[in-house]
Design a protein that fits this description.
By secondary structure, the protein is of the alpha+beta class. The protein has two domains: 5-165 and 270-308, no CATH class; 172-265, no CATH class. The protein is 24% helix and 39% strand. The protein has helices spanning 32-41, 140-155, 172-178, 202-210, 233-242, 278-283, 291-308, and strands at 5-17, 49-52, 56-69, 77-96, 99-121, 126-130, 160-166, 182-191, 215-221, 250-256, 259-265, 271-277. Strands 1, 2, 3, 4, 5, 6, 7 and 12 form an eight-stranded antiparallel sheet that branches. Helix 3 (172-178) packs antiparallel against helix 5 (233-242). It is globular. The two termini are 36 Å apart.
């Protein structure tokens, strides 16, 4: 990665409904307008999350809901949010007239110590999350983002939950799939509403859709080997997971180089880079629809397409 260039992790936006989470609410949010309504509501201060650690109190917030047009005909819908972590209070040692003592420091207003931009491309349900090495050490940022979006959905009276699911590195899952001389077990949790279909996954999606299936926990076993044909269902499952329509990792077991091997893969998001300074990306938040902003967004979506491939999204 080049220092000071805009670098991002790539995620699939999944829209899931769970009536047990929000009882009495019967309105899903599957179209663009409702997704954008939830995102816009998520920036309200009352939805901020206060998280306490051993020495600090942080405030996590979503702010700066911005809509863009990234094509010349202004048809592609794009919006962004900024995820910020602010330091409100911290315990530590301070210097006083009489020596060094433990004390509590409070900041008012709290100062932001980390902020990242998150771009949502609605046409393909893809999300580019600005990479930050400190935040990405754990999934805390992702869990909190989901919590805030869930609270916003509840406030808007929607049953839907917006989820960011990592899209693995190019061919990561399929490379693992093909590495087995004999594949004896394949386990995956698939999620398939509103897919960005490829030729490898269209048939499986249509079969599941016709049966009314939106989530499918699949575990296939055969000690003599599952089919690894590109036309077979195991391959289609791996391909659908590769495109980000999954929950968590995918488990594969079988024989590799003469040895029994288990591979768990798919939980790390692919990384992309755009040859534009990070400060330019920050600047378009304040001027989203200028010619320069459109050029920057086109560069970001082109980088996303290099990872995912250009797929015809017309249904």
């Amino acid at each position: 990665m080049t220092k000071d260039h805009f670098t991002f992790n790539l995620y699939r936006m999944l829209i899931q409904d769970d009536l047990s989470v929000f009882p009495g609410m019967m309105k899903p949010a599957h179209d663009d307008e409702n997704i954008m309504k939830i995102a816009k509501s998520s920036t309200e201060m009352r939805l901020d999350k206060h998280i306490k650690t051993k020495v600090s109190l942080f405030i996590w917030s979503l702010r700066n809901y911005v809509e863009y047009s990234n094509t010349e005909d202004n048809t592609t819908r794009v919006f962004s949010l900024t995820l910020a972590r602010s330091l409100e209070r911290q315990t530590g040692k301070t210097v006083t007239d009489s020596g060094i003592v433990e004390s509590l420091s409070e900041l008012n207003p709290p100062l932001i110590d980390i902020a990242i931009n998150i771009f949502f491309f609605l046409e393909r349900h893809l999300i580019a999350v600005e990479y930050n090495s400190t935040l990405m050490r754990s999934s805390k940022w992702l869990d909190i983002t989901h919590e805030i979006l869930d609270s916003a959905a509840e406030f808007c009276r929607f049953t839907s939950q917006i989820r960011l699911e990592p899209i693995p590195y190019e061919e990561e899952l399929l490379t693992s799939f093909r590495s087995f001389a004999k594949l004896t077990r394949l386990r995956a949790h698939l999620v398939i509403p509103n897919p960005d279909l490829s030729n490898l996954t269209k048939k499986l999606y249509e079969e599941m859709s016709s049966d009314g299936i939106v989530e499918w926990i699949s575990e296939m076993r055969n000690p003599f080997g599952l089919s690894q044909s590109v036309e077979g269902r195991p391959h289609a499952i791996a391909a659908l997971a590769q495109e980000g329509y999954k929950k968590g990792h995918i488990t594969m077991e079988g024989i590799v180089d003469g040895n029994l091997k288990t591979i768990k893969t798919g939980e790390k998001a692919a990384i992309g880079e755009v040859d534009i300074p990070k400060v330019d990306v920050d600047a378009i938040i304040n001027s989203p629809n200028t010619s320069k902003s459109k050029r920057i967004l086109i560069k970001i979506i082109n980088a996303v397409n290099r990872i995912c491939g250009n797929v015809d999204t017309k249904k």
